[in-house]
Each structure stands twice: as structure tokens, then as C-alpha cells.
Amino acid sequence: MTNEGARQRIGFGLLLAATLLVVLPVLAIIVLIVTKGWSALSLEFLFTMPRDGMRAGGIFPAILGTFVLVLASISFALPIGVMAAVYLSEYAKDNLLTRIINLAIINLAGVSSVVFGLFGLSLFVVFLRFGVSILSGALTLGIMTLPVIITTTREALRAVPKSYREVSFSLGASRWQTIRHSVLPFATPGILTGAILSIGRVAGETAPILFTVAAFYLPKLPHSLGDQVMALPYHLYIATTQIPGVPENYRYGTALVLVGLVLIMNIAATRIRSRFRRKR
């Protein structure tokens, strides 16, 4: 065996080991959650209201609340994030101001979710007087996901070949017509990738909703954006740490539902992205 072949095998071995270090703990967590939480799953658990201070009954308000928060926050963040990325990528000049803005976006992506929660509490709940509500929580979560959406959208726009733009300009199209018809359609799968990443983060966050929307025990469904809701991450946190006597399978069942809900939403978004890719 040549030295080059030996180095190649060592490299493949290191890559395999790194992959296993990432995949095996995730698989172990999933197996643990499924094993201990499967017995709790039933129609009553999924579609009824909690009872006895969350020691019995179902988690339907928390499931619905999580879905509403994800849908509302993505509906707010995705259009704004895409428009901001289009401006920074296609219109803005490369100067000191845009470099500062890009640096700020990168820094915001690494800010702790607790900071976003305190920001949402100060701005939406107190200053704008939206109160502890779906609106405050969705706006806070939407701002938290904006850096991811802007970054992934910019990368998707940059991946579109420049020849597409040049051909469009040569045919007399304006810059906006070029972006709309020759750039955005081909960047849509990448944009949806940012939305998929945001869905996973929004659905699993506890700190931002703790300050802005989540209710400790609310056995009823919301009727407007001004209502509080229960949410699966906060519900799981409270049931695990604050309420004595909660059955173990109830806690793991809640975690299993949260993982399943995120998986279902990600699969739906991935199918939509695949459909756009097939069209292009």
C-alpha cells in the first residue's frame, strides 16, 4: 500500500469517527425518548386538555400553541428576512455601512435566546403594550430567526450564476424584474432551507416564550393573537422540574411529541423545497 493510499484510509477513518460521534448520541437520545415515551401516546394524550395541574389529561393546548407560534413567527420573519437579503445582496454597495450590517447579522445569530426573550419582554410586552400574548411571542421568535434566514437567503442568491442576471439585463429587464424572474426562482430551495432551520429552532426554544407568551397551566385554546398559549418546550420544562408526581412516561411522551412535531414540519418544508428544485 502506497503512502497516499494509507493517508486516504486514515482520512476516511477519521471522517467516519467524527460522523459517528455526532450521529450516535443523537440516535441514543431518540431511542431513549421513544422507549420511555411511547406508552404515553394515545388519542386522549394528544387531543384532550390537561387536568389536575398537568398531572393528567392531554397536551393538546401545548401542541396547538407550538404550531401557532411556529407558523406566526415564520410568517413574520421569512418575508422580512428575504427582502433584507435581497437588498444586501443585489442592491446595497460594498461599503463600511453594509459591512457593519453584515457583521451585526452574524453576531446576532450567536446571541443567546435568553437575550432575545428579554428584548421581546421590554419591547413588545412592556413598551408596545402587546402584553404576554401570541403576538409578542411570535415577534420575538421571528426576530431571533432573522439572522439565519438572512444568511441562508444571501448564500442562495449568491449561488445563482451571474450569467442569469447578465442575460436578463441584455434583454432589457430592470433589476427588479431580473431578481424576480431570473434570481429568486432559482434561489427558492436555498431560501426554504433557512426556513426549515428556523422551524426547528423556533419549535424548541423555551427562554423567549417564557418571557413573552407561555402560560404555566392553561387548559383552553387561544382565540386571538392577544391570548397566552401553552407550548411544548415550556410545558415539558415545567412538568419535569416544577411539578412533583408527574409520571415519567408523561414527560417523555411530551418530548416525543415535540420531536415528532418538529420532524413533521421539517418534512413538509423539505417536500416543498424538493418540488421547487424539480421545477427548476
Question: How would you describe what is shown here?
Answer:
The chain has 11 helices and 2 strands. The N and C termini lie far apart (45 Å). Strands 1-2 form a two-stranded antiparallel ribbon. It has helices spanning 3-37, 43-47, 60-91, 96-109, 113-127, 134-159, 162-170, 175-204, 207-212, 232-241, 248-279; strands spanning 50-51, 56-57. β1 (50-51) and β2 (56-57) form a beta hairpin. It has 280 residues and is mainly α. α3 (60-91) crosses α6, α6 packs across α8 and α7 runs antiparallel to α8 (175-204). The protein has a single domain (56-279), classed as MetI-like fold (Orthogonal Bundle).
Short description:
By secondary structure, the protein is mainly alpha-helical.
CATH architecture: Orthogonal Bundle
According to DSSP, the number of beta strands is 2
- The fourth-level CATH homologous superfamily is MetI-like
Strand order of the largest sheet: 1-2
Characteristic key phrases:
single chain, mainly alpha, MetI-like fold, two-stranded antiparallel sheet, 11 helices, 76% helix
Question: Which helices and strands occur, and which strands form pairs?
Answer:
Blueprint: H1 3-37, H2 43-47, E1 50-51, E2 56-57, H3 60-91, H4 96-109, H5 113-127, H6 134-159, H7 162-170, H8 175-204, H9 207-212, H10 232-241, H11 248-279
Antiparallel strand pairs: 1-2
Helix pairs in contact: 1-11, 3-6, 3-8, 4-6, 5-6, 6-8, 7-8, 8-11, 10-11
